[in-house]
């Protein structure tokens, strides 16, 4: 027995079968993925059978749209069976009612709404019975809005990353320029020690007033001429 898919919100649940309308699948969105969990159908889309599950990243979805389609084969077969049911009214009311109901179901299955999304070059199509048309249109608007928001957020993050990289590069350029200026700056010449040496010599030595001989500053007599100093 096929059961309905559990979902946090009834807005995410969709019928996939015209007869077993209570059997539903879900299409949900989060910040990064589109999640599809829908039963497949057989017998002109009247009965659910199997399941289609898919999770597509929003970054890979390139297009989303809905469309209405009419399957002439189902419509013609449904109309013929309805006519047969009407013909049987005079013979068996029960048989006629069954034929009319089956014919109406087959005819209704020929009017379908499709939700299509393209992911990485692959087209995914999900078909719904005609009475889900308005909700499928709302789903298209919801997915389109989410994709636009995702693209805006991604562009903002990309621009922020570019700005950050440029800021880092500009800072590195300024630091490099400062370092180059410091390297190229002229070095101040070392102070000459000649005058200092001269002053030091003047403090450590003196000259004899008689013969001019160079003597230590603490000398009391000239070593050369014997003149008393001081």
Uncertain stretches: 1-7
Quaternary organisation: single chain
**Spatial strand arrangement across the major sheet:** 1-2-3-4
The overall average pLDDT, rounded, is 78
Radius of gyration: 49 Å
Largest sheet: 4 strands, antiparallel
**SSE sequence, one letter per element:** EEEEEHHEEHHEE
Question: How many beta-strand runs?
Answer: 9
| Portion in helices | 40-55%
Name the shape in a single word: rod-shaped
Structural class, by secondary structure, is: alpha+beta
Percent range for β-strand residues: 25-35%
Tally of separate helices: 4
Termini separation: 133 Å
What does this structure look like?
- By secondary structure, the protein is of the alpha+beta class.
- Strand 8 and strand 9 form a beta hairpin.
- Helix 1 (72-88) packs antiparallel against helix 2.
- The N and C termini lie far apart (133 Å).
- It is 42% helix and 27% strand.
Short description:
With 230 residues, this protein is of the alpha+beta class.
Helix-strand blueprint:
Blueprint: E1 13-15, E2 24-29, E3 33-42, E4 47-57, E5 61-70, H1 72-88, H2 93-109, E6 111-119, E7 122-129, H3 133-184, H4 194-204, E8 205-207, E9 214-216
Antiparallel strand pairs: 1-2, 2-3, 3-4, 5-6, 6-7, 8-9
Helix pairs in contact: 1-2
